[in-house]
Amino acid sequence: MIAATQIKRGMTIIRNGELYRVFSFQHITPGNWRGMVQTKLKSLKTGAIIEHRFRSEDRVEQAYLETNEMEYLYADGSDYYFMNTETFEQIHLPMELLGDSIPYLTPNIKIQVEFYEGKAIGIELPASVELKVISTEPALRGATVSNVSKPATLETGLVIQVPPFINEGEVIRVDTNEGKYLERVKS
């Protein structure tokens, strides 16, 4: 059990016998009242996001997850197949469990798969991934880094905003937390 004030984003907690991932949290100290922690929790069972306010003196049960490095292999319908890099054992995870992570999965990418009591409950992506630009408007002549951006479709179908000097066929680095362009990858 941990104090509610120690809750962090991405942490998995147990509440009313169910697993929840902390989507966001905010410490609030209103005037003369006692402090509290306002959270948004995502149910790992249903995928629903709920809001819950913990008092600062509340205790929260943290779920301890086992993580294994796995390599993404391929998708077959709504199932995604992964291989353990140590034991070569293969597992498949449904689309619903992966959620917003799907546009960042490319064959052979290494990720962390989280297990709770022997059952896969989610994945942890690397901080950034490299993806190829499939389509975008032509580069503007003389374009330099500025606040202007244009949409680009990446190899996984993800559409993000990129600087005007990015061309089709280039590989870029994308932040997996915010889905934003970070930099062009040198060839």
What is this structure, in a nutshell?
With 187 residues, the protein is an all-beta fold. The protein is 2% helix and 53% strand. It starts with a strand and ends with a strand.
* pLDDT < 50 runs, ≥5 residues: none
Taken together, the total number of domains comes to: 3
Question: Whole-number radius of gyration?
Answer: 20 Å
CATH topology call of the largest domain: SH3 type barrels
% residues in beta strands: over 45%
Range of helix content: under 10%
Number of helices: 1
How far apart the termini lie comes to: 48 Å
CATH class of the largest domain: Mainly Beta
Q: Average pLDDT value? A: 85
Q: Order the strands across the largest sheet as they lie in space.
A: 1-6-2-3-4-5
Question: Any key phrases for this structure?
Answer:
single chain, 187 residues, mainly beta, SH3 type barrels, OB fold (Dihydrolipoamide Acetyltransferase, E2P), 3 domains, 6-stranded antiparallel sheet, 5-stranded antiparallel sheet, 1 helix, 2% helix, 53% strand, flat
